[in-house]
């Protein structure tokens, strides 16, 4: 919805004022600068507390693309966008770590990846994790 996108955009402008810090690490490939088309990209977001997260991608034009929400019970809800499907993406939760995998990376998957959580009415974003083909 437009209201959600506005809130997300506001979160990107000022990440330091939104409470807890979220951390993303690249699980695969070992060197993100060597990402190749068709390769599996695995990201992990560590939140430091129980709850759920949403994964979002910002493309080169700055457009935000919702990918998936993983709730505290490990239930995943993917975007209704046909290009984002459980066949192309995998999402899972283990304790306070949330994993996102792009099964076969393509140019349309390029962008900055973020995880976002809302806790006690405070929205928190991870730093951007760039994922671009060489």
TrEMBL record:
| Record PROSITE patterns | IG_LIKE (PS50835)
List residues of the Ig-like domain: 15-126
Protein name (database record): CD8A protein
What does the UniProt entry say about where the protein is found? Cell membrane
Q: Name one Pfam family in it.
A: V-set
- A single GO BP: T cell mediated immunity
PANTHER family attached here?
CD8 ALPHA CHAIN, T-CELL SURFACE GLYCOPROTEIN CD8 ALPHA CHAIN
The record's listing under Gene3D superfamilies reads: Immunoglobulins (2.60.40.10)
Matches recorded under InterPro entries: CD8_asu, Ig-like_dom, Ig-like_dom_sf, Ig-like_fold, Ig_V-set
């Amino acid at each position: 919805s437009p209201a959600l996108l506005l809130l997300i955009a506001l979160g990107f402008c000022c990440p330091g004022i939104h409470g807890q810090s979220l951390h993303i690490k690249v699980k695969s490939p070992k060197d993100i600068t060597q990402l190749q088309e068709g390769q599996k990209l695995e990201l992990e977001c560590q939140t430091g507390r129980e709850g759920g997260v949403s994964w979002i991608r910002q493309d080169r034009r700055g457009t935000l693309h919702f990918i998936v929400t993983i709730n505290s019970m490990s239930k995943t809800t993917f975007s209704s966008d046909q290009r984002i499907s459980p066949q192309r993406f995998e999402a899972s939760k283990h304790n306070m770590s949330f994993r996102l995998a792009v099964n076969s990376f393509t140019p349309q998957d390029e962008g900055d990846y973020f995880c976002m959580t809302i806790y006690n009415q405070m929205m928190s974003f991870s730093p951007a994790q760039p994922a671009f083909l060489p």
